[in-house]
Amino acid sequence: MEKTLLSIEQMEEINSLLKQKAVEAGAETWQDRKEAQKVSCKFGEEGVCCRICSMGPCRITPKAPRGICGANADTIAARNFARMVAAGAAAHSDHARDIAHVLHMSSENGSYKVKDKDKLYKLAGEWGVSTEGKDLYDVAHEVAEVALMEFGKPFGTLRFLDRAVDGRKETWEKEKVAPRAIDREIATIMHSTHIGCTAEAESLVRMGIRTGLSDGWGGSMIGTELTDILFGTPTPTQTESNLGVLEEDMVNIVLHGHDPSLSEMIVLASEDAELVAYAKEKGAKGINLAGLCCTANEVTMRHGVKMAGNFLQQENAVLTGAVEAVIVDVQCIFPAMAALADCFHTKFITTSPKAKIPGATHIEFDEHHAFDSAKGIVKEAIDNYANRDRAKVYIPDSKQTAMAGYSIEAIIKQLDLVTNSHVDKTGTVKPLADCIVSGVLRGAVGIVGCNNPKVRPDYSHIEIIKNMIANDVIVVATGCAAQAAAKAGLLDKEARNLAGQGLRTVCELVDIPPVLHMGSCVDISRIILLVNAVAKHLNMDIPKLPVVGIAPEWMSEKAVAIGNYVIGSGIDTFLGVYPQVTGSAEMVDLLTNRVEDIVGAKFTVEMDPAKLSEQVLERIEAKRTALGI
Ligand code: SF4
Ligand code: MSK
After folding, report:
1. What are the chain's domains?
2. Contacts 24+ apart (CB under 8 A), 267-273
3. Nearest CA to 377 among 505, 266, 513?
4. What's the pLDDT at 4?
5. What is the pLDDT of residue 417?
6. Ligand 1: which atom is nearest the Cα of residue 57?
7. 197 labelled as ligand-binding?
8. Could you give phi then psi for residue 400, rounded to 5 degrees?
9. Nearest ligand, CA of residue 59?
10. Annotated binding residue at 435?
11. Do 326 and 341 contact (CB within 8 A), yes or no?
C-alpha cells in the first residue's frame, strides 16, 4: 500500500514546493489572492446582499431588516440561492446542448462519429425514434433533435423522468416539481427572482429543486448519454494521477475544462503520426497529454489519459514549468491562468467563445473541421517546446495508479462476476442490492464536487472516503472529488486493503477498487440512475435506501444545481461548505429540514470531515433500521 497511497501531508509538501516555484517566478497563485481577500463580505457570505435592481444594492442588518422594495432576508437569500441553481443548471445543460449539436453534425466521414451504436439505438427506442431501415446517422440526427427539443419544448415534462422509480415520479407530480423544458425552468427562476415577483422562500426552494431536476434528469443526463453515444461508454481503464504524470522530455499538454467535443479531438490529434513526428523533430520524445478537472475525467475514462489533478491544482500544473500548453474550453478555469502562464513559457489557449479570458491565446475550436482544428492547437504546443526553460522545471515525483471509467454498464458487468448463472439473471444490479440488503455493504455514498479554499484542499474528500470504505460503505465518485481520491491512491484496487471486511470481500470478488470513478460532474446523472436502478430492483422509493450524497469541498453554482437534484431525487446530501443562505433562518430551516417533507431528502452541513463522516454513517444505519435490514 505504501507504494500507491499518498498522504495529505505529502500532497501539501508538494504544494509548498510548487508555491516556492511561484515565488521565485514572481507569480501569483490562489493562495495569495485568498490571503488578499482576507475576510469575506459578511452579507455575501450569509446571502443577504441584494443587487437585483438598481434601487439597491440593499444589505440586511438588524437595523435595516428590509431592502428598499421590502424584501427581507428570507426573500433575498432564497432569490440568490435560486439564481445559483439556475446558473449551475444552465452551465451543465448548455454543455449538453453543445454535445447534442455535435451529435447532430456527426457523420460517417466527419470528425465526429457514433461510437456506441447500441446506446444510440436504445435511446432511440426509449424516445420513440424509429430506426427501421434507417441509416445510422439519420437515427443519430433525429435523436439529437429530440434531445435539443428537451431544452425548449412548450408542453409536457422531460422525457427522462419516465426512467424514475414510481415513487419519485409520484412525488414530483404531487409536489409540482417535475421539470418541464430545461431552458424553461432556468428562465422561470430568472423571471420569478426579478424584482416584484416571488418573495416566498419556500416557492423559490421548490423552483430550485425543479430546475435542479431539469439539470440532473435533463441537461446532465442528456450530456452523459450523448457523450457515450459519440465517444463510447466508459469501461474500466487503468491510468495515473497527479503532477508526476508530466514528462521531462515530452511535449506536455494539459487539457482543462469540461466539453469532450474538444478534448476527444485533442486526444486524436496528439496520436496523429504526423504531429508525433513533428514533436520528435522539435527534440521531444513525443506528446504527453494530461487532464485537469472534469476534462481529465472525460478523457481518462475513455482513453486512459493521465490526470494531472483537480480544481485547485490547475495553477500547480503551470508551476511545474514543464507544460507547453494548457488548452481549455469551458467552466472551472481560473482567469488567473493567463497571467500565471506569462511567468513561464506555457501557452494558455482558450478555445470557446463562451469562455474567453484576457491575456490568453484564443484559438477558436471549429467543430465543423474538428480534427484539423485540434491539430492546429496541438501544433502550437509542440512549437512551444523549444521555449521551455529547463532551469524552471520541477515535476514532483508523485503519481498514483488509478482505475477509472465505471459507467453503470461497466459496474453491472463487474457485478456479473458474482452472479450465479444457474439462478440469477445477468446484467442487473441485483448483486449490488443483495450486498446492501444483507449488510455486507452497509450502504453507498456518492462523493462529488470541487475543491474550496474554505476547507483544507483535498483533505475532506480523502478523510471522508477513507472513513466510508473502512465502514463497509462503497463509494462512487465524480468530478474533482474523484481526482482527490485518485491522487491519494484510493482509486487503485489495492485501496481495498483500507476497506472493512465486507467491502473488501466484494472488491475482491468482483475485482473493483472500493472507490469507483464514475466520471465528470455531468456524470452524476450516472450515479442517480444507478441508485434509481437499485430502488426499482428493490421496489421501493429512493429515500428509503441507505444511500447518501456528499459534496465535501463544493464551490460552484453547478454544485448547487447538483445538490438540488440529488435531494430532489430523494438522496440525503451532506455538504462540507455552507451555502450562502445562513442570514435567513427560514432558508436554513427549509434546506436542512422542511424540504424533506417535499422530496423525502434534505441537506446537512458539517465542515469537520470526521463529524460529517459520523453523521453520514448514522444516517445510513438509521435508514437500514427503518427498512429492518
Ligand atoms: Fe433592494 Fe429590493 Fe432592489 Fe433587491 S430588489 S436591490 S432588496 S430594492
Ligand atoms: S470540475 S464543478 S471544480 S467538481 Fe467539474 Fe471540479 Fe467542481 Fe469544476
Report:
1. 71-231 (1.20.1270.30), 243-392 (3.40.50.2030), 405-627 (3.40.50.2030)
2. 267/299, 267/303, 267/305, 268/371, 268/374, 269/371, 269/374, 269/375, 269/377, 269/378, 270/378, 272/375, 272/378
3. 266
4. 63
5. 84
6. 6
7. no
8. -120, 145
9. 1
10. no
11. yes
Ligand closest to the CA atom of residue 73: 1
Interface ipTM: 0.96
Give dist(CA 375, CA 219) in Å, integer: 29
The residue whose CA has the least distance to atom 3 of ligand 2 is 450
Cβ neighbours of residue 424 closer than 8 Å, sequence gap 6 or more: 430, 431
Give the integer Cα–Cα distance in Å for 155 and 96.
21
Using CA atoms, how far apart are residues 568 and 564, in angstroms rounded to an integer? 6
Output the DSSP codes for 151-187: HH-SSS--GGGGGS-HHHHHHHHHTT-----HHHHHH
Instruction: Please tell me the predicted confidence (pLDDT) of residue 6.
Output: 85
What are the angstrom distances between the C-alpha of 315 and each of 15, 35, 206, 557? 10, 16, 38, 21
- Among 49, 51, 68, which residue has the most ligand 1 atoms within 8 Å of its CB, making it the best to mutate? 68
The atom of ligand 2 lying closest to the CA of 555 is 7
For the chain, residues with pLDDT lower than 70 are 1-4, 419-423
| pLDDT score at 38 | 86
What contacts 434, CB < 8 A, 6 or more positions away? none
Choose among 362, 357, 369, 350: nearest CA to 265.
369
In contact, 550 and 574? CB cutoff 8 Å: yes
Q: Which residue among 49, 72, 195 has the greatest number of ligand 1 atoms within 8 angstroms of its CB, and so is best to mutate?
A: 195
Tell me the best of 220, 293, 523, 527 to mutate to test the pocket of ligand 2, counting ligand atoms within 8 Å of each CB and taking the most: 293
Q: Return the bridge partners of 58, or none.
A: 50
Q: How far are the Cα atoms of 100, 294, 580 from residue 83, in angstroms, in the given order?
A: 25, 23, 12
Return the bridge partners of 349, or none: 327, 361
Q: Looking at the CA of 554, which ligand is closest?
A: 2
Residue 58 counted as an annotated binding residue: yes
- Return the residue matching grid coordinates 491512491: 489
CA of 49 to the centre of ligand 1 (A): 9
Does the annotation list 41 as a binding residue? yes
Cα separation, 418 vs 49, in Å, equals: 55
How high is the pLDDT of residue 425?
Answer: 77
Task: Please identify, by atom number, the ligand 2 atom nearest to the C-alpha of residue 478.
Answer: 4
**Residue 2, pLDDT score:** 43
As for ligand 2, residues whose beta carbon falls within 6 Å of it are: 258, 293-294, 310-311, 331-332, 449-450, 479-480, 520-521, 556, 558-559
Q: 625 Cβ partners below 8 Å, 6+ apart?
A: none
Nearest atom (ligand 2) to Cα of 310: 6
Characterize 450-470 residue by residue with b for buried, 16 or more Cβ atoms within 10 angstroms of its Cβ, and e for exposed: bbbbbbebbbbbbbbbbbbbb
How remote is the C-alpha of 313 from its chain's centroid?
A: 16
Cα(147) to ligand 2 centroid in Å equals 24
Please tell me if the CB atom of residue 65 comes closer than 6 angstroms to any atom of ligand 1: no
DSSP 357: -
Ligand 1 atom, smallest distance to 53 CA: 3
The grid coordinates listed for 130 are 424509429
Residue indicated by cell numbers 456524470: 523
